[in-house]
Amino acid sequence: MSAFSLSTSVRAQSLSSRSSHGTTAGSVKTTLKTPASRQRLAVHAGNSNENGIFAPIVRATRNVVGAKPFNQLRGKGIGLHSQVIGKFCQTIGADSKTKQKLILLAKKNGGELGFLA
Asked: What does the pLDDT look like over 50-74, one tens digit per residue?
């Protein structure tokens, strides 16, 4: 188990050493460790379905245009789609929780179709 530890020297001053003659400070060594619950967290970004119907087109476009401009274009597309969903929810009078669910559903569907490849 690889725990993240940090050793630092902390300057400590006891109450008894606070005198008018000056201060005497001792050195205390502390070790900080990450909690066990946070050690195994991993971020999984990307598409769960690399073989969706649109995945070959997405990969080819990314290879032709380049990764950075492609990701910028995809981000703009996702933003516009989220705005359309928001306008739709506003039109029908749906609450923000429904809007969030619809945006997550759009992301899931886009992943299944290969748009996030």
From this structure: 788 999 999 999 999 999 999 999 9
CB neighbours (10 Å) of residue 57? Answer: 13
32 Cβ partners below 8 Å, 6+ apart?
A: 5, 6, 8
Which value, to the nearest 10 degrees, does the dihedral of the CA atoms of residues 66, 69, 75, 79 take?
A: -140
Q: Tokens 């597309």 appear where? A: 77
Cβ atoms of 111 and 49 closer than 8 Å: yes
Mean pLDDT of 30-38: 64
- With tokens 């506003």, the residue in question is 90
